[in-house]
Amino acid sequence: MDNPASAPPVRDAAPSAPAPAAAPSLYFNRELSWLAFNRRVLEEATNEAHPLLERLRFLSISGNNLDEFFMVRVAGLKGQQLEGVEERSADGLTPSQQLVAIAREADALTAAQQDVWSTLMGLLRQSDMAVLAADEIGAEEGAWLDSYFTEQVYPVITPQAIDPAHPFPFIPNKGFSLILDLQRVADGEPIQELLMVPATLPRFIRLPGEAERYVAIETLIRRQIGTLFPGYTLLGGGAFRIIRDSDIEVEEEAEDLVRFFRTAIKRRRRGRVIRLELGADMPENLTEMVRDGLNATDALIYESTGFLGVSDLELLVDADRPDLKFTPFTPRFPERIREFGGDCFAAIKAKDIIVHHPYESFDVVVAFLRQAAEDPDVVAIKQTLYRAGKQSAVIRALIDAAEAGKSVTAVVELKARFDEEQNLLWANALERAGVQVVYGFIEWKTHAKMSLVVRREEGGHRTYCHLGTGNYHPVTARIYTDLSYFTADPRVGRDVAHIFNYITGYIEPQELELLSMSPQRLRKDVTALIDREIRNAKAGKPGAIWAKMNSLVDAPLIDKLYEASRAGVEIELIVRGICCLRPGLPEISENIRVKSVLGRFLEHSRIWCFGNGEALPSRKARVYISSADWMPRNFDRRVEYAAPLENATVQRQVLDQVMVANIIDNEQSWRLNGDGTYSRVRPGRGEKPFNLHHYFMTNPSLSGRGAALKTGGKGPQKLQLSRGA
Fold first, then answer.
1. What distance in Å separates the CA atoms of residue 238 and residue 305, rounded to the nearest whole number?
2. If 0-12 CB within 10 Å is exposed, 13-18 middle and 19+ buried, where does residue 507 land?
3. Contact, 370 vs 395, CB < 8 A?
4. pLDDT digits (tens, 9 = 90+) for 173-213
5. Which residues pair with 571 in a beta bridge?
């Protein structure tokens, strides 16, 4: 191997995971840390370096994130509270205490979203793009809207009286409605009416003309109250929006997982109301009617001062205004594959390849599977599917392979949250084509991203593998930063085959040669790697850990990092989202630095680097990629993998380029402080600005360049790590 020093997971005896430290002050609250992350997302909507519609996109993302947070995390805590569960979080809070803190922070975040929207509206107007208020609609626009309402809206909406004969109707999750207090002119009889706005109606109507001018659907409906309710006077009214409990908990006694999920998806649509968002003009009597009608007395209620449903602002981002968006980026196709005439197997057989998405095209993964489907020498394909999207070329390739007579196995994870219904549809399509579909474990999720292709070659069968840090999803692959690792190493092939056999047949591997897998050994192996750095530091050698992930929550691993810090190990953590570790605590975490990177692309890759007796970056380092974050669920309740990178070029790309770029970025990074706040990183005096996303958009990778580097082709700009950073 090119770099044997970075090879297999450490198999020396690792101590059992330590119990979490007793002092709650050693940990940040998971839920509040997530809200801090979403605050950073919202801050990107104020970043003047981004084009206006991209800023609006960040605002809508922060709204969608918050919706899902209430649908899952807050719903779980509310369920614990109502059932009297008093189990405390790692930082010592009961469910009720966490809900109080969440409500306070979420309300502040929602208010900040309205402030940002108000600012962006003003800036958009300066760029000839506007959402008009009712009093801004002129006679000409009004006439057009009257016609539009009559033809497009009136036939779709259904006013419903609320009285003993007409009970409060069911309103779906994220449902947006208007409730009105009316009085009949003829006899003064009062009546309350509900207007549910169907999801099939656009939230914004574009007015004709060259300028991008829109009217919100609620503005249009309110304008037409006289048309909807002739002979009535409007006394008052308001808008409201609801968020329902949308989590699905798999019952251990579920006999048929497919049937269970089909039923659970239907049941989820009627989940408990967790959050009720009210317009600021809602009269008190109507507020009570809505709360009682929705059985939402236990819901968290927020009275908005502006736009309800911030996530819907994404619809405005679709406007045909390229001048207000990022310059389109076309990802590169790895030249290594082109050098072999597009033959993925020949290129991988010659040398391991790592592909950096979205800078390098996800099409290479699709090409790998398509070639496997079309190649008459390929005898078997095995594939995990966690999230594949609605238009999946990966699914098409698997179907084609099965129809060509190959042995195809697909592990479809039904428990991928909010993708359950789509995955059921894919599973049906795959089974109809003759694919052997497996759903994995009832109690665990299969989160590992793996492809295995067995090909008949001279001398016997050869196994080609793809290991990814992200999903086989062509849409997210254009905006998520992830790594795709291709190898024909027979040891990796045997390990991946063992993992597939474990998922499909519950045959637990006795020993893996290179890979580490949860829930069996991953926690022990990561702990052992950290212990080795601790031993090195205590022996007077450099101890160093760099780790990049989406979330750091696991208390035993946090404690192990604290132990490493106390021993003198220098630790750099790049944690995009939740981080429960407190950096900079005297005598506990003084040697730990944590940053979060947010920008044009979503940082999603999981990479772990260990100095192995030298300061990082070094040629002796042990470098791993993984599908797992450092959370209890990833170690204990999911099938995950971690793979060492042994090829020297591949290792240099990941360590010297990807990781160093993340560490030295000073344009879209945030530093986590010891009190839980985040501070935006700014270039220091005499320091040049460095944007890691721009760097990778303009610098080709090492691994994918192939012979071009040897013949004087342009390689990536060398990055320098400042030890004072």
1. 12
2. exposed
3. no
4. 999 999 999 999 999 899 999 999 999 999 999 999 988 99
5. 545, 592
Catalytic option among 50, 356, 357, 447: 447
Q: Are 344 and 488 in contact (CB under 8 A)?
A: no
Whether 119 and 46 have beta carbons less than 8 Å apart is answered as: yes
Report how far residue 149's alpha carbon sits from residue 676's, in angstroms, rounded to the nearest whole number. 49
- Tell me the C-alpha distance between 304 and 107, whole Å: 9
Contact between residue 324 and residue 53 where contact means Cβ atoms under 8 Å apart: yes
498 in active site: no
The count of C-alpha atoms lying within 13 angstroms of the C-alpha of 661, restricted to the half-sphere facing its C-beta, is 20
pTM of the model: 0.89
pLDDT of residue 704: 56
Contacts 24+ apart (CB under 8 A), 431-437: 433/398, 433/399, 433/402, 433/403, 434/402, 434/403, 434/408, 435/398, 435/399, 435/402, 435/408, 435/409, 435/410, 436/407, 436/408, 436/409, 436/410, 437/409, 437/410, 437/412
Please determine, for residue 557, whether its predicted confidence score (pLDDT) is greater than 50: yes
Neighbours of 44 (CB within 10 A): 20
Nearest CA among 335, 313, 57, 84 for reference residue 203: 313
In DSSP terms, which residues pair with 555 in a beta bridge? none
**What does the pLDDT average to over 11-18?**
38
3-state secondary structure 550-580: CCECCHHHHHHHHHHHHCCCEEEEEECCCEC
